[in-house]
Write a structure and sequence with these properties.
566 residues, alpha/beta, D-Maltodextrin-Binding Protein, domain 2, 5-stranded mixed beta sheet, 4-stranded mixed beta sheet, 20 helices, 18 strands, globular
């Protein structure tokens, strides 16, 4: 199977109202507009090969939201503790001509690019074990909200549903789970047995509770499995920060000892600025102090950066207080925007706002960036070759890379790490084959097989099961550092989570737009935040203040029950 190149499609959703167009950020449009059309071979249960052909068109205006359309032509053919050790690289069983659901065809609406790997790794296995033909529709995640909502609203009116299995963002749960569009899974988890004879409920309970409770459940019921366990942490070059010459030069210029790593945001900026614009890495071109603060700063990942920093700077405040009064339009919000602007101007590669995801990761694993605060992709790629971001410079040198929690506002302040983003996989309530769809989804997602796509340098999915963070319990088939695996759960404990309530994507969109207006010089920080606050209140009124307050308080109680300091 050919692998699609990484597109800037993670968490790329800007919500412009129900039924409105989904718009993809500028950087994504640049990348999509320049990549060639690709053909992805998928498994088939017949001797001939079935292919999924995708073409891409886009229009682009740099640093602002743009419209991009991805056209997809689908194929026309039809709490117990287990003792097993999870092992990556398990091959599919021999092809068979029977199965409990032999002859059933399901349409799986999957992510594209490097996030297509969960399907690529497991579709043959699902076919061989269950007899199910999975027909993929691969599309950038940005399009999934509108496509699924259109499909489900049509199905509710009596039209045949298009999708059986769907990949979604957890931030949409307020619309999809509360709205009743996803199939509730509790009865299935209690009745279906996995391959070691245990109810799938036991497997589900192995997912890290931070993901399980906030990503996969709504109102105490299960509607999905975690497909991508996004947690951000600090990556840094230990060798560069401990180099005596660098230490002496830094102290002479900045006035204090070079921290390794920086533990406050002031230190973080000073270090990143000092190491920007000169070839300290010996790579033959200018190096920079920072690449990635959650992700590339296209219009939607700016909101993830803003909220993560806002949580840290404010020491745990969320977008709203207990009564849904916005909390971002204040001195803390202004300080966050100004800090983001300083990092962009002084510490990052010129043109950073238009970088694609793979370029951001390539800067760090290629030795051109000193630090990154981003998802687990770097942890999975940095010691390997042949990754979706290229070959790492550090394959045989794990001691050069350090991992830590995010910096804090001061030495005595609490640390917060963004755990926003991720992916879930669920089953449409309108599928005509619910039993088969759930069985296929569980086969792809259970702990013994999800490791196949997590432990893959062509994949964008990060660990979601607790045992994946312990190499004595899980055998990875790529090089990873146990030091990285140790830091991720620590970041989860001090996590700043997605605001999972109805309309969350719309609130996020307002932050994205107004923060982008500030970053690109279209308005000052106070005006940007005042505009976002006004639009927040409009969104809340649309959903109903009392209803939103109740949902918000439920979310806060759930987050706090997991130990989130919010």
């Amino acid at each position: 199977m050919s692998q699609e190149p990484k597109k800037m499609d993670r968490r790329k959703f800007v919500y412009a109202g129900l039924g409105a167009a989904v718009i993809i950020v500028a950087g994504a449009a640049v990348y999509l507009g320049t990549r060639p059309a690709t053909t992805t071979t998928i498994f088939s249960t017949v001797p001939t090969t079935t292919t999924l052909t995708k073409s891409t068109t886009s229009t682009t205006t740099l640093t602002s939201a743009t419209t991009a359309t991805t056209t997809v032509t689908a194929p026309t053919t039809t709490t117990a503790t287990s003792t097993y050790v999870v092992q990556a690289g398990l091959p599919p069983t021999a092809t068979i001509t029977s199965g409990p659901y032999w002859g059933v065809t399901l349409v799986a609406y999957m992510d594209s690019g490097h996030n297509y790997e969960p399907f690529a790794q497991n579709n043959g296995y699902v076919r061989d074990e269950l007899g199910i033909i999975l027909e993929p529709v691969a599309d950038v995640l940005a399009n999934h909200y509108a496509a699924c909502m259109r499909d489900w609203q049509a199905a509710a009116s009596g039209s045949p549903p298009t999708y059986d299995i769907v990949v979604l963002e957890p931030v949409w749960n307020g619309a999809f789970m509360q709205g009743g569009y996803l199939l509730q899974l509790d009865n299935y988890l209690d009745s279906i047995k996995d391959e070691i004879g245990e109810p799938y409920r036991n497997d589900y309970n192995h997912i890290s509770p931070n993901f399980r409770k906030l990503y996969d459940e709504w109102g105490g019921n299960v509607y999905a499995y975690t497909e991508d366990g996004d947690t951000t942490n600090l990556y840094y070059r230990k060798d560069v920060l401990t180099d005596p010459t660098n230490q002496a030069n830094f102290k002479a210029k900045v006035g204090y000892d070079l921290p390794a790593p920086p533990t406050t945001w002031d230190q973080f900026y000073d270090v990143a600025k000092f190491f920007s614009g000169w070839d300290w890495g010996g790579v033959g071109k200018p190096c920079y102090g920072l690449t990635g603060l959650t992700g590339p700063w296209d219009v939607t990942d700016i909101q993830a950066t803003f909220l993560g920093l806002f949580g840290s700077f404010s020491q745990g405040k969320m977008m709203f207080d207990e009564n849904m009064t916005p909390q971002i339009n204040n001195d803390t919000g202004v300080a966050v925007l100004n800090y983001m602007q300083k990092l962009l101007s002084d510490c990052m590669m010129p043109g950073y706002l238009s970088l694609a995801w793979d370029t951001m990761f390539a800067q760090f694993i290629g030795g051109q960036a000193l630090m990154a605060i981003t998802y687990g992709d770097i942890g999975r790629l940095v010691l390997n070759s042949g990754t979706f971001a290229g070959n790492s410079k550090f394959i045989n040198e794990p001691s050069l890379i350090g991992y830590n929690v995010w910096p804090a506002p001061s030495e005595n302040a609490k640390h917060f790490c963004s755990v926003m983003g991720g992916r879930i996989i669920g089953v449409s309530k309108y599928t005509t084959q619910p039993d088969a769809a759930v069985a296929a989804m569980l086969k792809m997602s259970d702990e013994r097989h999800a490791i196949n796509y997590v432990s893959d340098v062509l994949s964008g999915e990060d660990p979601m099961y607790d045992d994946y963070f312990d190499m004595t319990k899980t055998k990875w088939n790529i090089n990873v550092d146990q030091n990285w695996l140790n830091i991720v759960p620590k970041c989860q404990v001090v996590g700043y989570p997605d605001h999972v309530i109805p309309g969350a994507a719309e609130y996020y969109n307002e932050i994205a737009i107004e923060a982008t207006n500030f970053i690109t010089g279209k308005m000052d920080a106070t005006t940007a935040l005042s505009t976002a606050e006004k639009n927040f209140n409009t969104i809340t009124a649309k959903y109903g203040l009392d209803s939103q307050v109740a949902a918000w308080k439920n979310f806060l109680a759930n987050a706090r029950s997991l130990g989130y300091p919010v």
